[in-house]
């Protein structure tokens, strides 16, 4: 059963945004008092947060599928939907985030860092938010956009100041236990250490961490043994300590040959770009197990040759603790020098300048793509793609609103410049984008409506005539009655009206 995991693939789905609401306010004597549809809530984000209390990715190895909450739908009476809660995933300090193709996205090497790896979707606007002086009664709302969905790879690289490297059973775990309060597993068989062990060492005023990685053997760079799999934990260390076994009983092995093998394997390991190669970092040598008489003689024999190579050599015993104090202070000196150099380098590092986007930048691109069915004009950009995702294509007014937004953004002008003509196939988005036949002026069935787009004559409650209008109507009515009486009198005088006796009435 696995107890330590330093590489895992997460399957993430951020929360979707809620749809906006289409609603009309109703009051007494005002059955249609205006739009009051609320906005949809935003979907929850998925963020990675570095936690010093977490040392492994085992929890995500067992449960790799993670989902955040969706946003709520908007409701009438200007009630907005609730936003989904963010999902924070604690990860160890030193976690590197990569996409599915292996491209690094973030390096979380400090405690408390927070990285939003899967942003949630945006909530759609309700018809109340879409209302304007020219669009008094929108009969549509915007849909919520989907949250980010995909895979990311988490890779743990232990953050330690000193890395202990050497053959299996050289005494690295015993050295960690002797120098610090850590209690790693120690046994008398190879590959006892199956995952890196960390220990904190206090040497005078300097406190630093040491890391014990599984033992290296010849051919580790080619995949033999366990060491290559865990050499990534050595990348962040500022110094290396070679632990050489002076009491080994294996034939053909001695401290010099062991060191040569380890150096070849370290040289074959590629470090990320911008980092110092492993063999160019400060290195010390510890000749271990000198509590054994034969081992002490061998250590005294090989020490001059190692010092002739330029190494500082310490003869130690993790059993009797002989030589450990001098070794701990020597490591502290290397760590302190590395920290001073890193601080000086940070002061000279160029500052990152974030420049805002130019005001005349279109924010989208139009590219002509040839295919078996003819030329297709593909539109890519954050705004057009988001607007398409928010459009309810079953609503003609919503489609007309999308056409107005695209025309205002300048999409039609760019299509003309790209060579598009009436009837050309236009795609907004990627492989799953929306395809339509383009016309120079995008229209919908909204022109069949008697009232202007976005308005409703039923909401026009200003039907009561003014006092002047009523006076004018009264005088016109009286004049019409007087004219009718005068016409009857003229007909009577002309003899057009006669009684039963034949005389004019």
Please give the order of strands in the largest beta sheet: 10-11-9-12-13-14
Overall mean pLDDT: 81
Instruction: Specify Rg, calculated over alpha carbons.
Output: 40 Å
CATH class of the largest domain: Alpha Beta
Strand content: 15-25%
Helix content, binned percent: 25-40%
Beta strand count:
18
* Largest sheet composition: 6 strands, mixed
- Secondary-structure arrangement, i.e. CATH architecture of the largest domain: 3-Layer(aba) Sandwich
Secondary structural class = alpha/beta
Q: By CATH's scheme, which homologous superfamily of the largest domain applies?
A: P-loop containing nucleotide triphosphate hydrolases
Provide the CATH topology of the largest domain: Rossmann fold
Q: Regions with pLDDT < 50 over 5+ consecutive residues?
A: 189-193, 442-450
End-to-end CA span: 123 Å
Overall number of domains? 4
Helix count, DSSP H or I runs of 4 or more residues: 11
- What order do the SSEs take from the amino end to the carboxyl end, as H and E? EEHEEEEEHEEHEEHEHEHEHEEHHHEEH
**Shape annotation:** elongated
